[in-house]
Amino acid sequence: MKSHKVTMLGTGLIGLFYTLTLHGQRNRDRVEVIYSRTQERADKFAQDLGVPHAVTDMKAAIEHPDTDTVVIGLPNHLHEEAVKLAAEAGKAVLLTKPLARNAEEAWRILQTVEKAGVFAGYLEDLVYTPKAIKAIKAVQSGQIGTPTWARSRETHPGPHSAWFWDANQAGGGAIIDLGCHCIEIMRCYMGKDNRPVEVMCWKDTLVHPIEAEDNAIALIKFESGAIGQFEVSWTFRGGMDLRDEVAGTEGTIWLNHFLRTGFEVFTTGAGSEYVAEKAETNAGWLFPVGDELSELGYVDMFTDMFNAMDEGREPHETFYDGYVVNAVMDACYRSAASKQWAPVELKEWRGKGVPRIQREEELYEGKVIIKQEKMPDGRLKMILKDKQTGDFSDVVVDG
Ligand SMILES: NC(=O)c1ccc[n+]([C@@H]2O[C@H](COP(=O)([O-])OP(=O)(O)OC[C@H]3O[C@@H](n4cnc5c(N)ncnc54)[C@H](O)[C@@H]3O)[C@@H](O)[C@H]2O)c1
Fold first, then answer.
1. What crossing angle do the helices spanning 180-190 and 130-140 adopt, rounded to 10°?
2. How many CB atoms sit inside 10 A of residue 313's CB?
3. Which of 133, 302, 313, 348 is deepest in the core (most CB within 10 A)?
4. Cα separation of 30 and 19, whole Å?
5. Do 341 and 335 contact (CB within 8 A), yes or no?
């Protein structure tokens, strides 16, 4: 069994989550080198998490001879530089979301790894939560028929570090930070061969004194005719709300990942403990998460990434996926500015394409069945359409 040795770039929230995941349980993949700007932070992280080397020079961290994989958990404006250095070092590179601040930068990042021929994985954890994996499989196996609509919502009271709030460093506000998750979640339900075609988006800065948006809603039209809908906010109070819904011609799936998972605790605040990411309080009714690393998808995500590396295949989430997500977000910003539908502009579409959603017509006595419903008395009511005359009628038959 192979194991991997990792250079981790960043000692912030995601560097911590990623390292805890890699070192979790009896995992064989280890962080060997940690990079931070200050020696003090690097040393503290190394000591707390059992990392042998603590380094303050990013290039040296990436080129460290003891590692084969670079995991990037740095602010968005540093992604391109870090990917370039990792590709030059010929190492596998795993990059957190969003791939970049915009599609232009994302395209350059994609080109860099493809030209270098190094393994590259896009660390979009929320499509790897145990619930998401099961729900995506259910959709792929046809359990809900053809998807017609998907909704993904991520809202919380706002990010935990200064750089997120500066649109120059982050690339935008809540759309870039949270919308990227929602878009990829919807793409997984719609099928990645289903091209996102155009976008209608509203965004505004309602509460925080910043230039970037702190709230946004978007509709994304897919090639099949299906619609995606995301809602993101940096002003939602009460913790982190992560919910997805997908509807199809044969079924519906609702998922609640964080605030209502069936685990509810009341405390006066005695013995105050960490509750969950973005929890606003540790007193009163609380909604903790059982195994946060797993329930946020980090465990299955790294398993897929390292398995893909060992098996010589692409991971389920690639840099191309990250590029498509950035292109959709660019269209969101263009639509919000113009108040019109904006096309999703892709330099290259790698999907196979999908047909328009349609179902075979079912007939009853020569008329098209629009809908059937069991009545309280057990009989079956049908709504029919006469194709010749265009008339609609009700017919009730014994069920
Ligand atoms: N669910 C997720 O996948 C998820 C969650 C959180 C963050 N992220 C992503 O991870 C990345 C980092 O976010 P975070 O929450 O860990 O941020 P953070 O602020 O908690 O940590 C950022 C790290 O980068 C370092 N850093 C900041 N500016 C730097 C600079 N100019 N040069 C070198 N190092 C610098 C900080 O010291 C810190 O170690 C972002 O791209 C973010 O979008 C992903």
1. 30
2. 11
3. 302
4. 8
5. yes
| Interacting residues of 225 by C-beta distance below 8 A, sequence separation 6+ | 148, 356, 357
Q: Is 60 exposed, middle or buried (0-12, 13-18, 19+ CB in 10 A)?
A: middle
Choose one of 8, 48, 77, 96 to mutate for the ligand 1 pocket test, by most ligand atoms within 8 angstroms of C-beta: 96
The dihedral through the CA atoms of 176, 182, 185, 189 has a sign that is negative
Does 196 sit behind a cis peptide bond, omega within 30 degrees of 0 on the bond before it?
no
Contact 130, 300 (CB under 8 A): yes
Which of 13, 168, 317 maximizes ligand 1 atoms within 8 Å of its Cβ, making it the mutation to test the pocket? 13
pLDDT 10s digits, 245-257: 999 999 999 999 9
**pLDDT tens figures, 285-312:** 999 999 999 999 999 999 999 999 999 9
Report the SS3 class of residue 177: helix
**Beta bridge partners of residue 393, listed in sequence order:** 384
Ligand 1-lining residues (CB < 6 angstroms): 10-15, 36-37, 73-76, 78, 96-97, 123, 125, 161, 163
The pTM of the whole model exceeds 0.85: yes
Average pLDDT over residues 207-225: 98
208: left (phi over 0), alpha (psi -120 to 50) or beta: beta
How far does residue 359's CA lie from ligand 1's centre (Å)?
Answer: 46
Which atom of ligand 1 sits closest to the CA of residue 38?
37
**Alpha-carbon gap, residue 179 to 238, rounded angstroms:** 19
Domains in the chain, please, with CATH?
Answer: 5-124 (3.40.50.720), 127-297+317-343 (3.30.360.10), 363-397 (no CATH)
